[in-house]
Each structure stands twice: as structure tokens, then as C-alpha cells.
Amino acid sequence: MALGQVARTLGRVAGVTAGAAIATDAARRLHASSRWGVRARLGAAGDLPEWVLPTDVLASYAEAEEHREAADDLGLPMVLDEVNAWAAMGALAALLRLVDDGTHRSQVVDLGGRWSPLSRWCRALGFAVSREVPHERGSVDLLARLHPAGAVADDVDAVLELAGVVLRPGGVVVVTVPVGDADAEGALGRADLRALEARADGWGLRLVGDLDGEVGRRLTAAVRGARDDEQERTDGSAYALARLTLRRR
């Protein structure tokens, strides 16, 4: 599937009747039991596959499907969209490996919307999750804004600046941004990411990962691949997704 479709997905209640009270009660019991099952199987950062990285570049749907299958294997609540699962798995890795002390008491603010996979997974694991940014400075352990409600080139700075205010020392912000070449509207190139990394330092944030290392190589490969695809260049679409994790000093 064309990589341009990854970024195009950026654009994309159930009720219970009174007669379904018994079924609702059964569903609550099932949810409670499955929640404890997830906590038993995903009690520590080491339970996540090593290849799930806090900072990464998504270059294919096959990679995204791998992440969704890993979430299923861990017993996390089901996610149908593989790109959503890819975004959320990296944020969960950041939470478990970089922030939480094993007690699952970290405070999570998820700006991804009501049905965010990250919110559902964190709650299943016992974390407190809010969709509202608190007024107190330094009160959040993880701030996330992820695909399909991730940031674009014009507003990613605002997310990081906010993180510099609300995160505790050692807390992390995880954001997804489209990446592309100069013709990709709303996307960031490698030079843009370097400039963003430099600006983030002014807000007390340091990138987890190395743009000169594997992340940079994957980004370069994605750019090279897009340049070989004339259609992706002419329609102005972004063609890959980056997940950036930055830690508060």
C-alpha cells in the first residue's frame, strides 16, 4: 500500500438501552476480569517487544500491522486500525520504560480524543488518564498527541511548548507528525526535525533517540522511496509518519 495513504488517514456511541441491563452488567464483569489479565501479562516494561521504540518512523503498513499484532498478543483492548496501534504502542513503551516505576501511578494526558487506543490501553493497565490539560505546572508524567489526531508542521511547536510546562522532570511527551519532502503539505523533513529538536531544547525537552542513528536512516530511506514515487510527489501528500518522544529535563 502506498506510503502516502499513511498520512491521508490523518484526516479520518454506542448506546445501551434499559432492556440490556443484564448484558451491560456482564460486560462490566468481563471488562474488569480482562483488565486484571492485561495487568498480569504487561506488568513491566520488559513485557513489550524490544522493537517497539518510543521514537520511530513508520514506513509501511506491514510494520504497523506488526505492532497491532503485538498488542493483541499482550491482551490489550482491540484496535482495528494498524496505524493507530503503531502510534499508541510507541507511547505505551515510553510510559513503561521511561516514566513509570512499576506501580502504574503515572499521570497520563492523552490529547488524541475519546476513542484513543492509548487511553483505552492505559486505563486497562490501571493508569489514570485525562483528556484535559491540568492547570498545575509539572503535574503530568506522559503527554501524548497521536495519530489520527497528531500534530502537523504548523502546530507541533505548541504541543512541545505545552509539554515543557506541564511535564514533571523526567516526564515525556509523545507526538506523531507526518514526514515528507518539500512538496508534502504539513509534513516535516529531516532538516525540519533537527530544527524542531533544537527548539525543544529551549523548552527543557530532549529527544529520545538519535536523528543521526537508526531513526535518521529510516527517515532517509522513507524520503528516498517517496522521491521514486512520482504520484506521491505530485499530489503533495505526506508519505510516512514519525513518532517523536521527548523527555523533560
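Above is the first protein from milestone M3; the second protein from the same milestone is given next.
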Amino acid sequence: MELPSKAELVGSRINGFSSHLGSYGMGGVGILGLQLDDQWLIICLDGAGNWVEYENRMIEDYFYEDYDRGKPWVTDDADEISGKLAGSTIVDFDVQKHSMAIQLDTGSSILIHPDASRRPLFEGTKRERVFLDTDDLRHAITLSPTGELYA
């Protein structure tokens, strides 16, 4: 995958959002996407909503009540983020090996914070969601002409 440049994204308007892109045949793998003017900005992480935050709230965290964590933007019952993002324009885009920041004209940011303690634990192992030394977000974020992805 090719990481989009800052120049490709700055000025792009967000028209839609999905936290359930990707399919392995029985359902989505939770790849996150921002629908821009004529393409999708895709964050290709399994369960990406558990890695990404907006306004200091996780996009997804299905066990937040079990651990007394704050309510995420997307739950089984509601999607509170799509309306917040719609109409926003990207004003800055920065991706490092283990972090990401998308600054919006609203003053808000879409982040993957380098501090793993800000993310929900993996439920099965109760371990932090950490990047391995060999992981690199610059190889996991791309532009796509469609949100129909198959993993």
C-alpha cells in the first residue's frame, strides 16, 4: 500500500465514515475508512476503531462498560461520529511509524496515539494493543476508489 501524501489529502472534505470495511466472508474485519470527495482514506488495521480516537474518545470499544471506560463513538446501538465528521475538511495529515494525526478544520483530530494505554485492551488476552517494532502505520494507510474491500 502507498501512503497518501499530505498534499493529496489537505483540503479534502469528509463525506462519510465507516468502521466496518473489509470482509473475510462472514463479516467485516473492522477496517476504518473516511469517504472523501471521490475516494476513501483507509486505515487498514483489524478492529481499527479500537486503535483510533477522536476528541479523546475511542471510535469503538465493545467492552467499555465492563472496564468503566468512556463510551466510544460507535456502539452496537448508535453511531455518534458520522454526523460529527461529515462536512469536515482535512487541514493536516501526519503519519509516523506508530502514530497518526489527521487535523480537521473544526479544530478536532483523528488520532492513533503512540501511547498504548489510551487504547482498549485486547479482550481475549487482556494485553495492551501495542505495535510491534516491525509494524509501520505508513504501510497500513492508503487511498482507495471504493470502500468495498476484501481482506
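Note on the second protein: The helical segments are 6-9, 82-85.
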